[in-house]
Amino acid sequence: MTDFTGKIGLVVGVANKRSIAWAIAQATAARGARLALTYQGRFEENVQELSAGLATPPLVLPCDVASDDEIANAVARVEHELGGLDFVVHGAAFARKEELSEPFVNTTREGFRLAMDISAYSLIALARAASPLMEKRGGGSIVTLSYLGSERVFPNYNVMGVAKAALEANVRYLAADLGPKNIRVNAVSAGPIKTISAMGISGFSSILSVYRDRAPLRRNVDATEVGEAAAFLLSDAGRGISGEVLIVDAGFHVTGM
Ligand code: NAD
Asked: Measured from the CB, is residue 93 less than 6 Å from ligand 1?
């Protein structure tokens, strides 16, 4: 049921080997998926290098999710070179460093706009561009990545928490819009993992240690575990699930104190 043989996926958000999107790429490729991996400008070399490690060489493409043209070009190349699309992974997020260290009340208008555009709006833009290809193949599955900061306050997560709340609402509205085309839209909400983005959050290591102390499993999750959960939602095993936020955090979110 989690077999991806014959399936084609577009994975947005790989920066390096620690990226959660890379773990999802590996989990789906290992089960037979053919992939297109996109990179944001400065990460081209990393993504080219990583792609050599997949059994079936992926298509590697540029895509800045702030640009509708770049999204359209990436999707057009996937259609032209891979012949269609069955699933999409959205793993792009960004907020300015100041916005992740200063008091939330100091969030600037531009910082808010940027975080919302890259981290939340881009899912809508990507879904709009990719859904015609999935519709042609009888349906598909989209997964994005969120964090519990959408509902609870974590020190310095700030505007990214607001963006994740918008992202999770996007998941529900897109699920309702695209469901009649048999396209499912879900999020995996991951526990904290040391990646480039996470290290931009001031005091991130203290979040890691609180999870380690208090999560029911008394540990943090790793990217592989998030990758496996995302692969489940992207696969036919998840075919009855849409509009959901699946929390993969060693159980931390159920704790009161
Ligand atoms: P990461 O830094 O490896 O990935 C973030 C990606 O966003 C990078 O590949 C970067 O190139 C991409 N990106 C930023 N701006 C972009 C733009 N304009 N166009 C295209 N791509 C752009 O870090 P990660 O932790 O793997 O982050 C992936 C997702 O997982 C993010 O949505 C993040 O918020 C989410 N997440 C991370 C954690 C964590 O603790 N690491 C926890 C929960 C959710």
From this structure: yes
Catalytic amino acids? 147, 157
SS3 per-residue string spanning 30-73: HCCCEEEEEECHHHHHHHHHHHCCCCCCCEEEECCCCCHHHHHH
Identify the band that residue 157 occupies on the pLDDT scale cut at 50, 70 and 90.
Answer: very high
pLDDT tens-place string over residues 211-257: 999 999 999 999 999 999 999 999 999 999 999 999 999 999 999 98
Site to substitute for ligand 1 among 197, 211, 247, most atoms within 8 A of C-beta: 197
Inform me whether the pLDDT recorded for 1 exceeds 90.
Answer: no
pLDDT (0 to 100) of residue 55: 87
Give the predicted TM-score (pTM) of the model: 0.98
